[in-house]
UniProtKB/TrEMBL annotation:
SUPFAM superfamilies membership: Tricorn protease domain 2 (SSF69322)
Source superkingdom: Eukaryota
UniProt cross-references to Gene3D superfamilies, sorted A to Z: 1.20.1280.50
Record domain KIB1-4 beta-propeller: where: 70-277
Protein name stated in the entry: KIB1-4 beta-propeller domain-containing protein
InterPro entries in the cross-refs: KIB1-4_b-propeller (IPR005174)
């Protein structure tokens, strides 16, 4: 080790030290030391959520006071990381453990991705106005990550733009626009998002030399989602989200308080050119737009859960 420094630290010893670490912060720090250490350690299977403390801004961008990372490992430990970098008081995104920070909520001129535990900053070309930033992967762990921005279009709409490392500017992804976007799920080379009116947009990011992804909208998904309720009395969904868990794209349906369960999780399968049908068992295929269907499989059936048993989980 004396000759090579930290990069010559024995791999088996690194693995043993890594296995003894208990906090998310320590796991992240040891993985970021150098390429040699990254080869013998691994990132967390799931990023812990950032909880931001701020005051409501004029445009929805939150001015940050103190922010922290809650580590839900039984003792609900809280890690304080201090104030944001100077001149970047507003947050417009929290993806993959990174914060997207800007210098102004109305007319930003500076946009930076910050990893608060390591203090790593990644500047991005700034858009103005700007509502949200989403990141596909951890920039410290992947060279193929991308950023997607939501920008105001008209009075209530939003359009999306894409940026890849090395790009000088943002590229329009979906000019047509949607309503406000809460979350974007990245899976198998595609980006999926649902706006607040529950229109679904699927964007193929593997477009070769063409920087603009091919986007396919599926309108009025609310009708299909509401049909998933199997109660004697219909319970309309109060929220619909797409999320990736354990390598699978999942549809998370939230219900109002009168529903027997606050949330149900399904596996969507996108298939073209099918007619509406309801198959026996736990699988439904529902047309939500001409020549587009969603085949929805109740995730409970994938693990052979009996019909009369229900499990509830939070993503």
């Amino acid at each position: 080790m004396a000759g090579g420094g930290w990069s010559s630290f024995p791999g088996d010893l690194l693995k043993e030290v890594f296995a003894r670490l208990s906090s998310d912060a320590d796991h992240l720090h040891i993985h970021q030391v150098c390429a040699h250490w990254r080869a013998f350690t691994s990132l967390l299977a799931a990023c812990r959520p950032w909880i931001l403390a701020g005051r409501g801004g004029r445009t929805g961008l939150e001015p940050i006071g103190e922010y922290f990372l809650r580590l839900p490992r039984g003792d609900a430990r809280r890690l304080e990381v201090g104030a944001p970098p100077s001149g970047l008081p507003y947050c417009c995104g929290t993806s993959r453990g990174w914060l997207a920070l800007v210098d102004d909520d109305l007319s930003p001129t500076r946009l930076v991705l910050l990893e608060p535990l390591s203090g790593t900053e990644t500047p991005l070309p700034c858009l103005s106005p700007l509502t949200r930033i989403f990141v596909s992967d951890d920039p410290l762990a992947s060279s193929d990550w991308i950023a997607i921005a939501a920008q105001i279009k008209g009075s209530i709409g939003q359009k999306t733009l894409i940026w890849r490392p090395g790009d000088a500017t943002w590229t329009v992804m979906n000019e047509r626009g949607t309503s406000a976007i809460d979350t974007i799920a990245f899976h198998d080379g595609k980006a999926y998002y649902i706006d607040i009116q529950r229109n679904i947009v699927i964007c193929d990011l593997n477009t070769g030399s063409d920087p603009s992804p091919k986007c396919t909208p599926i309108f009025y998904a609310s009708f299909a989602v509401n049909k998933l309720c199997r109660c004697h009395r219909l319970h309309p969904a109060c929220g619909v989200h797409l999320a990736v868990c354990n390598g699978e794209l999942l549809l998370v349906v939230l219900y109002w308080g009168s529903h027997p369960w606050p949330a149900e999780v399904y596996r969507p399968v996108w298939t073209p050119n099918c007619w509406w049908r309801v198959s026996p068992g736990r699988t439904d295929t529902i047309t939500v737009r001409d020549k587009h269907t969603i085949q929805v499989v109740n995730i409970l059936s994938l693990f052979n859960v009996p019909i009369n048993e229900h499990y509830m989980g939070y993503l």
